[in-house]
Design brief:
21% helix; alpha+beta; 3 helices; 177 residues
Length: 177
């Protein structure tokens, strides 16, 4: 059974590898840069109200799965002249916590590599990859893709003392016009 699954994944990887890579990315999923918070609420069937924080209007969407990795999703629009209907989405942030009681079962640092593979298949090789150490010697891995309209940054923050505890962030940000 495992051999069949591995064979299926290998075949899918070969098919996706041959897919043409995009010249530009103009948002994430059904969110295109310039979509309003109200339009996003409607498109995703979200009943909750957005929240305002630090000159941003933020809306939680339902969790999604990317390559079998469950991630939370939040879209953001900068407050402009405090007119809610004119707030245009310029940021989408996805996250996955692992090693916590509230984490998705089986979530772990290996999910970073799964997401990296999925994103390479979709967007091509990243423009930049780096590994650094942060506060308390935390491991920080960062992978970046750059397109004319969008920057995509995926970050793994992993505890040095408890390597099975950490966070994966995947951020799509509209580049200034």
């Amino acid at each position: 059974m495992i051999v069949v699954r591995l064979g299926a994944w290998a075949a899918l990887a070969l098919v996706l590898y041959g897919q043409p890579k995009p010249k530009d990315v103009d948002g994430w999923d059904r969110i295109k840069w310039g979509t309003t918070i109200a339009d996003a609420r409607s498109a995703y069937g979200i009943d909750t109200q957005p929240e305002s924080k630090d000159n941003w209007t933020l809306l939680q969407l339902n969790p999604v799965k990317i390559g079998n990795v469950e991630m939370g999703v939040q879209v953001g629009a900068r407050l402009v002249e405090k007119v809610p209907s004119s707030e245009k989405i310029t940021s989408v942030r996805l996250w996955s916590f692992f090693g916590l009681p509230s984490s998705v079962p089986l979530a772990g640092p290996q999910d970073f590599d799964t997401l990296r593979t999925v994103l390479i298949q979709k967007y091509g090789h990243p423009a930049n990859e780096e590994v650094t150490r942060g506060e308390n010697n935390h491991l920080i891995k960062t992978v970046r893709w750059t397109f004319p309209s969008t920057s995509i940054v995926m970050t793994l923050e992993q505890s040095a003392l408890l390597p099975n505890v950490g966070t994966i962030y995947l951020e799509y940000t509209a580049n200034p016009s």
